[in-house]
Amino acid sequence: MSETQKREAARAALDEVRPGMRLGLGTGSTARHFVELLAEKVAAGLECLCVPTSEATAEQARGLDIPLTDLDSIDHLDLTVDGADEIGPGLALIKGAGGALLREKIVADASTRMVVIADGSKLVDTLGRFPLPIEVNRFGLGATRRAIARIMEAHGAEGGLALRRRAAGEPFVTDGGHLILDASFGRISSPEAVSRALLDIPGVVQHGLFLAVCKRAYVAGADGVKTVDP
Ligand code: 5RP
């Protein structure tokens, strides 16, 4: 997607922001545009208080003088705006390409409303073409990996399970100090069942299926931005 389209999706979501709101700030290249646009509003006098979903977003927001807080200091958020890797039927999502899925899910859950900003290529009929990120504890990685592989097999996964690595080859470590396994399902016919099964594995910290979380998607394309509701 072009940066222009990402920015237009972000700008559309900015219309939901009202003075005094407590906002969750997503992670990723599209969310970065939202943070930049929000910063312009803050500089022009908008009052808001924000919780970032990653250290990267926190750093960006701090650099732009956006007031930050955390979920220990406030009891809820009004609105969270985040990106997505896949947007399926009913606005079921796959998230986590940026490795921020745990904080993203905690922040989304603490929000009255969560919306995503994306381009049309993220819309799918069935989730799963994009490898599902699964955040796992470092301890017992082998056991966790085997348990996830069994679930993938039970759900007809077409691909494998890969430990996410950085370009230099070392394992990717999340802001929470965990690892990420990317599970290539190909298609996920029963997202709720896969979600439950994964969360039953002790070493799984969280996964990137966001089900019944997202209330609206702002999807940018060549013809402008359209809204998609569940
Ligand atoms: C990070 C995420 C991102 O929101 C998702 O990967 C979308 O990123 P981008 O806007 O760069 O395509 O889930 O963990």
TrEMBL record:
CDD domains: RPI_A. One of its GO terms (molecular function) is isomerase activity. It catalyses: aldehydo-D-ribose 5-phosphate = D-ribulose 5-phosphate. Substrate binds at residues 27-30, 82-85, 95-98, 122. Pathway: Carbohydrate degradation; pentose phosphate pathway; D-ribose 5-phosphate from D-ribulose 5-phosphate (non-oxidative stage): step 1/1. Its EC number is 5.3.1.6. The active site is at residue 104. This is Ribose-5-phosphate isomerase A. It comes from Devosia nitrariae.
